[in-house]
Write a structure and sequence with these properties.
The complex is a heterodimer of chains A (258) and B (272). Chain A is an alpha/beta fold and 258 residues long. Chain A has 8 helices and 14 strands. The mean pLDDT of chain A is 95. The chains are: A alpha/beta (258), B alpha/beta (272).
């Protein structure tokens, strides 16, 4: 069965979630992965969006974090200050699932500006919930398309703390949560090394060469000694993802995303 | 005491040049009709406060209403950039825009502090990131009990809060349902408030005893504006016009196209 690199990425990210997880979901790629998990191996997963919807079970992927679908299918909907104070800061969330415009080798993210802050070349949307999702959730998964402009040696702006600019700052600040433990891309899966917290390639997706991964990474990326090949998507995983994308495209009135 | 006004009269009375104004509604119940009325009345030099500027502030910024923006996520959700916001920040068009940028947690806490009558909000956040270096309103304080370093931001106390809701009753009490966002906090934090509603009813009818109600005496003015949240949505009335959010990308990308759209859909429309 053929599949696209984006489908592989979404499914590889979905597999990392457990049935028992309480997951704070970012919009876009994270949202697709979380809902694939819920519709396949993790039917008991609790999905939370920052609009206040708790244990939501959308039949189509929301375009925004506050689509009506999320509220209508949620167990309950709480005010936004309560969401950030009691549920996120209160330590009730096991996984935060994030994306970004730039990531560095220690899982720090930039979603604020390309160029300088005062005179940005590109003004990006900004932090949203990400900054405190990354510090308050038990651990963080990142899903991003991999290319050298996005996987950079140094971020233009540090919006969201991973393990810190040298991999040590998170621990030094005394932040109790684990931070990013997984980075899934359309080429491979990266995991942080135990000591230095640098993300190294743990698995490459089928048909992807190590050379391709190197060329698409802005720092000299390293590979695990126990490098694996990602299990290709199963027929069932693909069917669930494609059905979800079709329903979503129909609901939002545009061509199906990959 | 909440009293009924026509939307145009309410905006004229409550929103003045130079005011700080918070039009809230977290994706849901965004008060577009009120925002458009502010644009039509040509308000200038506003400090616009909103967690997610969304299309409404993209339009108000592009129309030249704003001097400053206080925000925490400035994108078109699921679509991409807010091009008018970007044009103002990157190229100062139609005028320079000062920005005060936060995270969602900070803004949500700042509204809650404003509603609580506190001078600042305290929370666990902003650790090890760059925003505190570019925003002097983000500071840290040591917990007097444990010594833990915690983030703090000033309370938000807008001159005016504007929100959209489903219903008002004849006395001007307001019922909000669905994703309730920070609307209650914004209204309680503000000096004056305007609520636009889908409809006025004799009685709210069956509802949870915990329903979100703004009593008339915390609301300065209520204006009836059916469809007043479109292309955002009103739970129980109409859904989010996601295809318009997608279409906005092309409209807003180009200055002339933006101005012609605004002419046709905002300036030439007269409510009331």
């Amino acid at each position: 069965m053929t599949y696209t690199a984006t489908e592989m990425m979404t499914i590889a990210a979905a597999r990392a979630l457990r049935d028992s997880d309480v997951c704070f979901v970012g919009i876009g790629l994270p949202s697709a992965a979380c809902n694939v998990a819920r519709l396949t191996h993790a039917p008991g997963i609790t999905l939370i969006y920052e609009s206040g919807t708790i244990a939501t079970r959308p039949s189509v992927l929301p375009l925004s974090i506050g689509d009506g679908e999320l509220c209508e299918t949620a167990l309950t909907t709480v005010p936004v200050p309560e969401m950030f104070r009691y549920w996120l800061q209160g330590g009730r969330i096991t996984v935060g699932f994030l994306g970004g415009a730039q990531v560095d080798r220690f899982g720090n993210l930039n979603s604020t500006v390309i160029g300088s802050y005062e005179r940005p070349k590109v003004r990006l949307p900004g932090a949203g919930g990400a900054t405190e999702i990354a510090s308050s959730c038990g651990r963080v998964f990142i899903v991003m398309r991999q290319h050298a402009r996005a996987f950079v040696p140094k971020l233009d702006f540090l919006t969201t703390l991973g393990h810190g600019p040298t991999g040590r700052e998170r621990r030094q600040l005394g932040i109790a949560t684990a931070g990013p433990t997984l980075l899934v891309t359309d080429l491979c899966v990266l995991e942080p090394e135990a000591e230095g917290n640098e993300f190294v390639v743990a698995a490459v997706h089928p048909g992807v060469s190590c050379e391709q991964v190197r060329e698409s990474t802005g720092w000299p990326v390293r590979f695990s000694e126990r490098l694996r090949e990602t299990e290709p998507p199963s027929a069932r995983e693909l069917e669930v993802l494609r059905d979800l994308n079709l329903r979503t495209a129909k609901a939002h009135g545009r061509a199906a995303a990959e | 005491m909440g009293s009924f006004r026509k939307l145009g009269d309410a905006v004229r009375e409550l929103v003045h040049d130079g005011d700080s104004v918070a039009l809230e509604g977290f994706t849901h119940l965004i008060p577009f009709a009120a925002g458009h009325e502010i644009i039509r009345q040509g308000r200038r030099d506003l400090t616009l406060i909103r967690m997610t500027p969304d299309l409404i502030y993209d339009q108000m910024i592009g129309a030249g209403c704003a001097r400053k923006l206080v925000f925490s996520w400035g994108g078109n959700p699921g679509v991409g950039s807010l091009h008018r916001l970007r044009d103002a920040v990157e190229k100062q068009w139609p005028n320079a825009l000062e920005i005060e940028e936060h995270s969602h947690a900070a803004m949500a806490n700042a509204y809650a502090a404003g509603a609580s009558g506190l001078p600042f909000a305290v929370f666990r956040g902003y650790q090890g990131v760059d925003l505190p270096a570019v925003n002097r309103n983000i500071r840290f304080i040591d917990c007097p009990f444990t010594g833990e370093s915690l983030a703090c931001v000033p309370a938000l106390r807008p001159d005016v809060a504007i929100v959209h809701a489903q219903k008002a009753d004849r006395e001007g009490n307001v019922l909000i349902e669905g994703i309730v966002g920070v609307q209650k906090e914004a209204v309680l934090a503000a000096r004056r408030s305007l609520v636009t509603v889908e409809e006025v009813v004799d009685d709210f009818g069956a509802r949870s005893p915990n329903a979100v109600i703004l009593p008339s005496w915390v609301v300065t003015a209520v204006a009836v504006a059916p469809g007043g949240a479109r292309p955002s949505y009103a739970h129980g009335y109409y859904s989010r016009d996601n295809s318009f959010y997608v279409a906005w990308d092309a409209i807003a990308k180009d200055r002339e196209q933006f101005e012609s759209w605004m002419g046709k859909h905002v300036h030439d429309i007269h409510r009331d």
